[in-house]
Amino acid sequence: MGFFARWRAKRALKKSIKNVKKNPCPINTVALMDSYLNLGMLEEAYAVGKQAMELYPMSAAVNALLRKMFKMKYDEQIRSLREKLRVQPLPTVYTMLAEIYSDMGETEKAIELCREAIEKFPDYEGAYLMVGKIRYNRFLEEGSAKDGCEAVDNFEKAVKLNTSNHKALLRLGELYLELGMPRRAIDKLRMAQMRRPDDEQVAALLKSAQEMAPERDDDVEGHFNELCERKRAARQAEILLRFSIEELNKIFSHLEDLPSGYIIVAITPDGRRLASHSFRHIIDEQRVILCVKSIFESTNDACQRMDIGGLRRAVFVGSTIQLHIFRFDDMVVALLADAKAGQKVVSEYIDNLIDKKLYVTA
Amino acid sequence: MKEILEELNKEVGVIGCLVVTPDGMVVASALKPSLDQDAVAALASRMIHSVQQAMGLLGENKTDKFFVNSSYGRILFFDIEIAYLAVVTHQNIDIEQTLIAVKAAAYKITHRRA
Question: What is the band of A277 on the pLDDT scale with cuts at 50, 70, 90?
Answer without folding.
Answer: very high
